[in-house]
């Protein structure tokens, strides 16, 4: 438990250096102007000041950086032994629906194969072939753990691991 808390503290320090004061929204959970995340602030990612308008509906393009960082740190504080993921449909995908709940919190031991089964269950598509990519272009092996992928491919700005899914028709 001590190593996880130290890693989380290092992440908070690294992101506080990156986050600009002019990007910060006052109601965010993580405030770069203070040393500690606020325990009294109620974070609401759907507040109008967090959501950017006229953007393609991806998580990264629809929310401000400070709000994405706030959501990451809040989930890490609540579940220090789990990894927060953002799972989205690929832009070219025509057949699979978008998920309403695209945020996942999974154990580091979960494999990509198990994550694909979770995605298929959430979409209620048990018989369709679904592929997952990480970092917009990497097809990980089905037996790779989320912990390994998070160490190598998490986003530099907000620290989330972004996973995109698509059906077989996209790839050939």
Describe this structure in words.
The structure is a single chain. The chain has two domains: 1-78, no CATH class; 81-171, Ubiquitin-like (UB roll) (Roll). Helices cover 32% and strands 13% of the residues. The protein has helices spanning 2-18, 59-62, 65-78, 112-123, 146-153, and strands spanning 83-89, 103-106, 130-134, 161-167. Strands 2-1-4-3 form a four-stranded mixed sheet. The model is unreliable at 16-24 (pLDDT under 50).
Keywords:
172 residues, Ubiquitin-like (UB roll), 2 domains, 5 helices, Atg8-like, Autophagy-related protein
CATH C-level class of the largest domain is Alpha Beta
Distance between the termini: 45 Å
Instruction: Name the CATH homologous superfamily of the largest domain.
Output: Phosphatidylinositol 3-kinase Catalytic Subunit, Chain A, domain 1
Choose one word for the global shape. globular
Number of strands: 4
Total of DSSP H or I helical runs spanning 4+ residues: 5
Return the CATH topology of the largest domain: Ubiquitin-like (UB roll)
- Measured by DSSP, the beta-strand proportion falls in 5-15%
Order of helices and strands: HHHEEHEHE
Which residue ranges are poorly predicted, with pLDDT under 50 across at least 5 consecutive positions?
A: 16-24
Give the tally of structural domains: 2
Average pLDDT figure: 77
User: If you compute it from the alpha carbons, what radius of gyration comes out, rounded to the nearest whole angstrom?
Assistant: 17 Å
Largest sheet: 4 strands, mixed
CATH architecture of the largest domain: Roll
Structural class designation? alpha+beta
Helical percent range? 25-40%
């Amino acid at each position: 438990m001590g190593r996880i808390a130290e890693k989380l503290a290092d992440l908070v320090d690294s992101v506080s250096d990156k986050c600009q004061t002019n990007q910060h929204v006052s109601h965010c959970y993580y405030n770069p102007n203070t040393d500690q995340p606020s325990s009294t602030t109620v974070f609401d990612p759907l507040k109008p000041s967090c959501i950017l308008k006229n953007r393609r509906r991806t998580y990264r393009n629809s929310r401000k950086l400070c709000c994405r960082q706030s959501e990451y740190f809040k989930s890490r504080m609540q579940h220090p032994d789990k990894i927060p993921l953002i799972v989205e449909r690929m832009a070219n995908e025509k057949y699979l629906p978008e998920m309403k709940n695209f945020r996942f919190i999974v154990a580091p031991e979960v494999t990509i194969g198990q994550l694909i089964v979770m995605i298929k269950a959430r979409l209620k598509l048990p018989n369709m072939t679904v592929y997952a990519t990480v970092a917009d272009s990497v097809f990980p092996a089905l037996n790779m753990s989320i912990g390994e992928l998070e160490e190598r491919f998490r986003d530099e700005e907000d620290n989330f691991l972004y996973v995109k899914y698509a059906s077989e028709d996209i790839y050939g």
